[in-house]
From TrEMBL:
One of its GO terms (cellular component) is mediator complex. This is Mediator of RNA polymerase II transcription subunit 16. It is found in: Nucleus. InterPro entries: Mediator_Med16, Mediator_Med16_C, Mediator_Med16_N, WD40_repeat_dom_sf. SUPFAM superfamilies: WD40 repeat-like. It comes from the Eukaryota. Keywords: Activator, Nucleus, Transcription, Transcription regulation. Its main location: nucleus. Residues 784-889 form the Mediator complex subunit 16 C-terminal domain. The gene is sin4. Component of the Mediator complex.
Length: 912
């Protein structure tokens, strides 16, 4: 039977009368709030209701418009899932702006400072202090006069003057991905003192530079812009003008050593050069030349309004770090009512218009050549021109335009929640893998944002693989990128999977190079990659950064290598399944290495302090941290020895059977053995021994006047802890030297030189497996090194030690301790549980900080009290972040985790 519409049967013949199917169905209603959103963007370029800082803090304007809400990505301690953290209100904002409606939020380049702008044009500035939800005020909004003319219509933070590591792309060479790092120059203008500074343009045509002086006080520099050609002289986003703004500082360079007197601070001045004006009535017309003057747009462009205007920084043209000229992007949208007012001339809802800023030679009239010049070689200075580029037409309303992935991608968000990614060089849409041998960004490799609940305000995570939107009710919704990996019938396409892993590696490496928060990448990797693919991802990260896992020779690089803690933290985070669950070996090895690194750096800094001979008194807070880490490192070393001694006894019956020994070693899963065999963690242990010797020697040489009160008590306890240890420091160093010798001879016996050693070292660290080449090293360790130390070690004391507080054991006592107690990850001391308030189960709330990534805690909820303690914490990089690199979050302990009562005895590490 033929289909009913075949053979040219007209639909009118079926129903007898024309237009019978015009049912008059209403068109889809616009999204709630879209008209208001378009109107706000038309009037001002400062209407960002939600912003995500590069440190990981999410700020949004509350539904009532007078408060700022703070949230963040957080790993949930109960199950290790990544979610949005609890919201908290930024209390100082309400007071600073006196309940005025807020209009705009903007983070600075590093993500540590937030500017809040209200509808009257007043600007207040805040800074992240000790946690993502602990934000303090830097600049009060009362400094500004609030009126209609002062409304801010444009704002930009000045960049910080620092060189960073960047990555061009990932290219497949001989079947392996090769990553191309280069050193990227900063793009000015800068504050010479590297303090906060931002530029604002007001509706009345005034430009202001708001900047912070070296004494932390704020100042501003105003200037008047020239008339834009409109009678009311008011700037909106419907008017365009190009003005070159030159900021000169006197002096142009400033060093802290120059002093902090106000007369010596850098003073800025403006120089404004008016360039060109483009009127909205012809902004859609592209000059196509005289041959195409009759080709006009097929729709009425006078109804379009300018709703977005951005200056996009130029991309880096080469690996040498040279930067291309910036370009200007404008978005023009028509109001919703225009869809009905001009039904016969329906154009696209939004149009992207672009200009490229170029340098062109000055062309003078030929008559000037006849003028005699005193300078025979006089040349006209080049001028800056705006070259018009092709328009991009969109069939949806554009509500946001963001430059993401370090300038490689232009993310355009639409009113229906869809996100289109464009290549910033060509404006080609990135919707999948075109070239399987080169990867430049996540979108080009096939990662896409799924359609979610519509939201008119959006912010992207530091690495642009996660986004948050505000829905029509002002509630925050989380969206993460997804990838299909070209799967068919449950099978992945290997090329797509490989490219996706390379794109994640590239994004993570770029984030590390510029010191961005990388929790978003960790979240996507956990949600999208299988366990096997996660291992490949980790291996690629070690190669890309690059981190040579062999530290048998260059051990000093461990202390200063910036990417080692980043790699260890990523690997530890991928294996975290909840604070009450024991980590698998591939996660426990980097987690232990991170804590060993923390102790190594702490002891090294403390040793330098003692060696410097400062006249200040020893700080009790610093000594308390040293004491806790001394106890932790000693117990950890005893834990390692206890396990290795037990292994020596267990393997004794197969020492003479190499095949049986190898098979038994394959079936074993010993964290202490992996820690000792890995050159990285073994080097940290050696640094710790050196530091402990220095701490002990520093007590004898310390000035008695510098040890008073609590300082003497803490330092005395440190020395008593070291002296009462069942294993002397020199004996432990002898043990580590024996392990070094066994590993060295194993490599030499197998013919492994420096070029071959990174392979087995990476196998130990990434896969938590003992490579075959080190089997003989294990045999030597258990058969020779351990028996030689038995006479110098109190094995009974080691065997009876309680190591449950370390959290690495697989016994019931460790699980019980983990359930009832928490240990300060920085000071390495157990935290007291909340005190009961009565017999009804209520407890006194206790504030603490929890890491958003590893879920460990710190009992310090305020800035360090003394200058010495502050310097130490700042030098360790632990003011805002945990030792794993995750950011701190303030929380209140209500006793939910403390199921039973716990008490400390002995050294304060045990529970009953």
């Amino acid at each position: 039977m033929p289909l009913i519409m075949e053979d040219g049967i007209d639909v009118d013949d079926l129903f007898g009368e024309p237009n019978s199917l015009e049912l008059g169905l209403p068109t889809a209603s616009p999204i709630k709030g879209l008209a208001q959103c378009l109107d706000e963007m038309r009037l001002s370029g400062c209407c960002q209701k939600i912003a995500w800082s590069r440190m990981g803090c999410i700020a949004s304007i509350s539904p009532d418009g007078i408060r700022v809400i703070i949230r963040y990505l957080q790993c949930r301690p109960s199950d290790g899932k990544w979610v949005l953290g609890e919201e908290s209100s930024l209390a100082p904002v309400l007071e600073a702006h006196n309940g005025t409606q807020l209009a705009h939020l903007s983070w600075n380049e590093t993500g540590s400072e937030l500017a809040v702008v209200d509808c009257s044009g007043r600007v207040s500035i805040y800074s992240i202090s000790i946690a993502l939800n602990s934000i303090t005020g830097l600049r009060q909004a009362s400094f500004d006069s609030g009126d209609d003319g002062s409304q801010v219509v444009g704002m930009m933070w000045l960049n910080s003057q620092r060189y960073v590591h960047a990555f061009h792309q990932a290219a497949k060479v001989n079947g392996r991905w090769a990553y191309s790092p280069f050193r990227r120059r900063p793009v000015g203008p800068f504050h010479p003192a590297n303090k906060g500074a931002l530029i604002c343009v007001t509706r009345a045509g005034q430009i202001k530079l708001i900047y912070q002086n070296p004494d932390s006080k704020w100042a501003e520099l105003p200037a008047e812009l020239k008339n834009t050609g409109y009678s009311d002289r008011l700037l909106t986003h419907a008017s365009m003008t190009a003005t070159q703004v030159h900021i000169s500082w006197n002096p142009p360079q400033w060093e802290p050593a120059q002093g902090k007197l106000p007369g010596q601070f850098p003073i800025p001045t403006f120089r404004l050069i008016h360039c060109k004006v483009d009127m909205p009535n012809n902004i859609l017309n592209v000059n196509r030349g005289p041959d195409h003057h009759d080709q006009s747009l097929p729709f009425l462009n006078s109804v379009y309004s300018l709703t977005r205007l951005e200056i996009m920084p130029g991309q880096f043209d080469s690996l040498a770090g040279s930067t291309a000229n910036p370009w200007i992007l404008a978005v023009l949208s028509k109001p919703l009512h225009a869809m009905h007012d001009y039904p016969d001339q329906q154009g696209p809802p939004s149009v992207i218009v672009r200009w490229h800023l170029e340098s062109a030679p000055q062309i003078l009239h030929p008559k000037f050549d006849e003028v005699t010049s005193k300078k025979s070689n006089a040349q006209a200075k080049p001028k800056m021109e705006l070259r018009r580029l092709e328009n991009v037409y969109c069939d949806k309303y554009i509500v946001s335009v963001d430059l993401v992935e370090h300038g490689t991608v232009l993310a355009v968000s639409h009113d229906d929640s869809s996100i289109t990614c464009y290549d910033t060089r060509t404006m080609a849409v990135l919707n999948g893998l075109d070239d399987s041998s080169a990867v430049t960004c996540l979108a080009q490799a096939g990662f896409q944002y799924p359609l979610e609940t519509s939201g008119l305000h959006i912010a992207f995570s530091p690495n642009a693989c996660v986004a948050v939107t505000l829905d029509s009710d002002g509630h925050m919704q989380l969206r993460a990128m997804e990838h299909s990996f070209g799967s068919t019938e449950g099978l992945y396409d290997e090329n797509n999977l490989s490219a996706a892993i390379a794109a994640l590696t590239l994004a993570f490496s770029r984030g590390c190079g510029v010191d961005y928060n990388t929790d978003d990448i960790l979240m996507v990797a956990l949600g999208q990659l299988s366990l096997e693919a996660q291992t490949t991802f980790i291996s690629e990260v070690y190669r890309a950064l690059p981190v040579n896992c062999n530290f048998t020779a260059e051990q000093d690089k461990l202390m200063s290598h910036p990417y080692i803690p980043r790699c260890l933290s990523l690997q530890a985070g991928l294996g975290f399944k909840g604070r009450l669950k024991r980590r698998n070996l591939s996660s426990a090895v980097p987690w232990a290495s991170l804590q060993l690194r923390h102790a190594s750096v702490l002891f090294a800094y403390f040793f330098q302090y003692n060696k410097g001979g400062q006249t200040e008194s020893h700080d009790p807070d610093v000594l308390r941290m040293v004491l806790g880490n001394t106890k932790w490192t000693l117990d950890f070393s005893h834990f390692l020895l206890s396990e290795i001694f037990d292994m020596a006894d267990e393997f004794e019956d197969v020492f003479d059977d190499s095949e049986a020994f190898t098979q038994k070693l394959k079936n074993s899963s010993s964290l202490p053995l992996l820690i000792l065999l890995s050159s990285m963690s073994r080097a940290f242990l050696r640094f710790i021994c050196r530091g402990l010797r220095g701490v002990h020697a520093g007590f004898a040489s310390a000035n008695p006047a510098s040890l008073l009160g609590d300082s003497r008590i803490y330092y005395t306890e440190i020395c008593q802890t070291l002296e009462s240890s069942p294993v002397r420091i020199d004996v432990y160093e002898k043990f580590l030297a024996g392990v070094d010798s066994a590993v060295k001879h194993a490599y030499q016996g197998a013919g492994f030189g420096d070029a071959e050693r990174p392979g087995p070292e990476k196998e130990l660290l990434v896969n938590a497996r003992i490579p075959p080449v080190l089997t003989t090293a294990v045999a030597t360790l258990l058969r020779q090194t351990v028996p030689a130390l038995k006479s110098e070690i109190n094995r009974m004391a080691i065997y009876l030690g309680d190591y449950s507080w370390l959290g690495f054991g697989n016994d019931r006592r460790t699980a019980l301790y983990r359930r009832h107690r928490e240990v300060d990850i920085l000071k390495k001391c157990p935290l007291r549980p909340p005190l009961p308030l009565g017999n009804d189960g209520r407890v006194a709330p206790v504030k603490k900080r929890r890491c958003a990534r590893c879920c460990e805690v710190s009992g310090d909820t305020n800035l360090p009290r003394s200058l010495l303690s502050f310097k130490m914490i700042a030098k360790l990089g632990l003011l805002r972040s945990c030792l794993c690199g995750g950011m701190w979050v303030l929380e209140t302990d209500t006793g939910v985790l403390g199921i039973g009562t716990a008490s400390a005895n002995g050294n304060g590490n045990r529970i009953t």
